[in-house]
Amino acid sequence: MGIDAKIQEYKKMLDLFPNAQEKYQYLIEQAKNNTNFPEELRNDNFKVSGCQSQVWLIPEKKDEKVYFMSDSDALIAKGLVTLIASIYSDETPEDIVSSEVDLMEEFELGVILSPARRNGAFNMLKMIKDYASKLSSN
């Protein structure tokens, strides 16, 4: 399943929730399902800058595809980075770099996220694209 198809699946899911509170709850559930993050990877090399909370994003390239592990010390940020990482995991670096979908607009996250959290989400996506860009040139 490609990036656009994954985005559409998440969009369908988020559209089921009639209000911001329920969308927040969905993000929290995503966070709770993201477990087993190795403590030794919680370091500055993998930290996403510009986030209100601490967020870590670790890329791994396997068989020409990129996979992302993620974590945060705050549930909403963790749910958000989990969702974003799952969209771009199992994709080629080239597909990640060329994807131009605005997740804030697609998921209407601008409505439910504070400006600081929107900025954090933007930085998560930027870090994913930066990793993919470096990996595609290797």
What does it look like?
The chain is mainly alpha-helical and 138 residues long. The chain has one domain (3-136): Sufe protein. Chain: A (Alpha-Beta Complex), CATH 3.90.1010. 56% of the residues lie in helices and 12% in strands. It is built from 7 helices and 2 strands. It has a two-stranded antiparallel sheet. Strand 1 and strand 2 (65-72) form a beta hairpin. The longest helix is centred in the last third of the chain and has 22 residues, at 115-136. The model has no long low-confidence stretch (mean pLDDT 91).
Spell out the key features of this protein:
138 residues, mainly alpha, Sufe protein. Chain: A, 7 helices
Distance between the termini: 24 Å
CATH architecture: Alpha-Beta Complex
Which CATH top level class fits?
Alpha Beta
Task: Please tell me how large the radius of gyration is.
Answer: 14 Å
